[in-house]
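Sequence and fold
=================
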Amino acid sequence: MGADSCKNHDSSGRRKALIELFLAIASEQVGTSAMKASNGFASLPLTALAIVGYSLSMLWFGRSMQILPMGFAYALWVGIGMMISSLLGVFLFSELLTPAVILGLMMVFSGIVVLNSSQEEAG
C-alpha cells in the first residue's frame, strides 16, 4: 500500500468517525427531547425513546472517539448539542430565545469553528 492509499484510508476513517459523531449528537437530541416531553418520565413511550436515544448516542460517541481526539469530539458533541437543544427548546417547547442565549450560542459556535480549524491544521 502506498502513501496515497494510506492517506485515503485515514480520511475515510475520519469521515466515518465524524458521521458517527453526528449520529451521536442527533440521537442525544432525540433522547433529550423525549425526556423533556415525558414530563418527568410519566410517559412510558417517551421514557423508552429517551433511553434508546441516549444509548445510541453513547454507542456512536464511543465509536467516533476511536479515531477522533477526545477533546475535539467532546467539544463538538457538547457544543453542537447545546446549540440544537436550545433551538429545539424554542420550537418544540416554547422556551425563550433571549439576547443572552443568542450571544452564548454565537460564542459556542465560534468555539466550534476555531476547534474545527485547529483540527484541519493538525491533520
Remarks:
- The CA atoms of residues 65 and 73 lie 7 Å apart.
- The two ends are 20 Å apart (CA to CA).
